[in-house]
Amino acid sequence: xxxxxxxxxxxxxxxxxxxxxxxxxxxxxxxxxxxxxxxxxxxxxxxxxxxxxxxxxxxxxxxxxxxxxxxxxxxxxxxxxxxxxxxxxxxxxxxxxxxxxxxxxxxxxxxxxxxxxxxxxxxxxxxxxxxxxxxxxxxxxxxxxxxxxxxxxxxxxxxxxxxxxxxxxxxxxxxxxxxxxxxxxxxxxx
Length: 190
Known about the structure:
- This protein has helices at residues 2-19, 81-88; strands at 22-26, 32-39, 43-59, 64-77, 100-111, 114-124, 127-142, 149-160, 177-188.
- It has one domain (20-188): Lipid/polyisoprenoid-binding, YceI-like (Lipocalin, Beta Barrel), CATH 2.40.128.110.
- Strand 2 (32-39) and strand 3 form a beta hairpin.
- It is mostly beta strands and 190 residues long.
- Strands 1, 2, 3, 4, 5, 6, 7, 8 and 9 form a nine-stranded antiparallel sheet that branches.
């Protein structure tokens, strides 16, 4: 009888440990925001912003979580230095006044045990708007380097840039809708 009670207590402890939220720290070497904008309907201008820092909390049992990510908008990388300077100017991101953006979410959707959507608020240029990210892929693995679980994926959305006051070029025919792909990997902390 004592063995059964101990086994039951051990299983209960294991279940409550598994139900606890797990905190992950974003790995900046595997995190960036990529954009793509049509250039007069011919080619596509692409670029990226690095993710400076962030934390992600996932509770798989409760199917909940939180995200808080800081994006480095002071350094745009389009591959064209003159374009980068223009994107960092007041015409676009006004990087001198707003060197970072932030995405904060507390609504995470699951498909089975995998994250499928993340809904939150994106702040750029001091303005905050709702954004929902769709997971194109999501996976967790044990890192051979960190010896801890790493979770992440590619998340997609399309934003209307004018909602953040980024409207330069709309009168030239540049699109307002901008597709984004957010690449994130985060390392388990707790």
